[in-house]
Amino acid sequence: MSIKENVDYVKNELTSEEKFLENFVKGERFFKKYKIAILGFITLIIIGSISYIIKKNIDETNKFEANVALNNFLKTGDEKSLLQIKEKDKKLYEIALFIQSKKDFKAAEINLPFLKELSKYQLALANNNVDELNNLALQNDFLLKEFAIFNKALILTKDGKFEEAKVALQQISETSKASELANLLKHYLLTK
Question: Cα separation of 8 and 153, whole Å?
Answer without folding.
Answer: 100
